[in-house]
Amino acid sequence: MSHESVWNSRPRNYGKGSRSCRVCKHTAGLIRKYDLNLCRQCFREKAKDIGFNKVCEIQISPRNLRSTMA
């Protein structure tokens, strides 16, 4: 048996090896929530196009920080 016939002989139907980014085919850092199947890097590039936006609940300023610590 040669190396080429053994290397990818196992079927990849489940587990980490079966999933990849739908944009760049990268397998690490995959975001699977909501069936996105995007890697972190592609998600950051495409987030606005998909409809995600950052939400900041509290804006901390030095003035607010001093009043809460006193």
Give an overview in words.
- Strands 1-2 form a two-stranded antiparallel ribbon.
- With 70 residues, the protein is mostly helical.
- 34% of the residues lie in helices and 6% in strands.
- The chain has one domain: 30s Ribosomal Protein S14, Chain N.
- The chain contains 3 helices and 2 strands.
- One of its GO terms (biological process) is cytoplasmic translation.
Order the strands across the largest sheet as they lie in space. Answer: 1-2
Q: Tally of extended strands? A: 2
Q: What number of domains? A: 1
Order of SSEs: HEEHH
CATH superfamily, by name, is Ribosomal Protein S14/S29
Low-confidence stretches: none
Note the total helix count. Answer: 3
What would you report as the Rg, rounded to the nearest angstrom?
A: 21 Å
CATH architecture classification: Irregular
**What is the average of the pLDDT values?**
84
* Main pleated sheet: 2 strands, antiparallel
Strand content: 5-15%
What is the CATH first-level class name? Few Secondary Structures
Might you state the CATH topology name? 30s Ribosomal Protein S14, Chain N
Q: How far from one another are the termini?
A: 74 Å
Which structural class should the secondary elements be placed in? mainly alpha
Shape from CA axes? elongated
The level of helicity is 25-40%
Protein name: 40S ribosomal protein S29
Organism: Colletotrichum nymphaeae SA-01
GO molecular function, one term: structural constituent of ribosome
InterPro entries: Ribosomal_uS14, Ribosomal_uS14_arc, Ribosomal_uS14_CS, RIbosomal_uS14_euk_arc, Ribosomal_uS14_sf
